[in-house]
Amino acid sequence: MQKLIIFICIIFFLGCTKYQAPDLNITNKRFSVEIDGIGHILYISKSSEYYFVLFDAFGVPKANKVLKNGSFKSMKFLPKDSFYDEIFIQSLDILDKNLKNKDFILENKQIRMVEI
Length: 116
Hints:
Elements: H1 2-15, E1 28-35, E2 38-46, E3 50-55, E4 61-68, E5 71-74, H2 82-96, E6 101-106, E7 109-115
């Protein structure tokens, strides 16, 4: 029973972690994002906060979020999906390290991001 309580506490505190975003001097950036070979376009803009919008190949938004105080908040009426949060974090990592592309695996899906 104690192990179950400890496990639940660990899961709760992991869910409360915040992401410390780098302070990048950008206004707008675009990325081509392939998720298991399916093309998407990611737009990032920054004023006081980072705003992310991910569109599928038909121009339909898949995710629209803002990174505020270290956590993502969904905009519009799109369903919450933490899968896209990690993609957005990786895009900031690309910009922070001045890379042009990055390949990684997320939830058993092959992701390729290329700055446009």
